[in-house]
Amino acid sequence: KIPAALSRPSVKATMAMGESAMDWPLSREEKKTQILRLYNEDVRAADSMLSSGEKALEALREELDAVRQAAGVHKAVRSTLLDAEEAVKAADEAEAPTAAAEAE
Predict the structure, then answer these.
(1) Residues 59-78: pLDDT tens digits?
(2) I want to staple 73 with a disulfide (CB 3.0 to 4.6 A). Which of 11, 17, 68, 104 is the partner?
C-alpha cells in the first residue's frame, strides 16, 4: 500500500515527471523531493570529479616514473637526492645567522 503522503496527486505527478516542469508553489513533500534530488546530483558530480582527478593523478605519477626511469633515476637515488637537498637547506639556514653577525 502507498503511504498517504505519497498518494497525493501532486507528489505522484512530481515522482512521475522526474525533471520536467513542476507547478508552483511546491508542497512540502515536493520541496523535500527536489532538495534530495539536487543533493544526490551534487554528490554524483563530486564523486565523478574525485574519480577523474585520481585517475589523472595516477597517470601523471606513471608518466613521472617513466621519465625518471628513462633518465636513469631510481627510487633509492631519488630519496638520497632529497635527503642531500634537505641537508644543504639545513646547512644554509644554520649559516645565515652567522653570516649576518659577521657582516655587522
Answers:
(1) 999 999 899 888 887 666 66
(2) 68
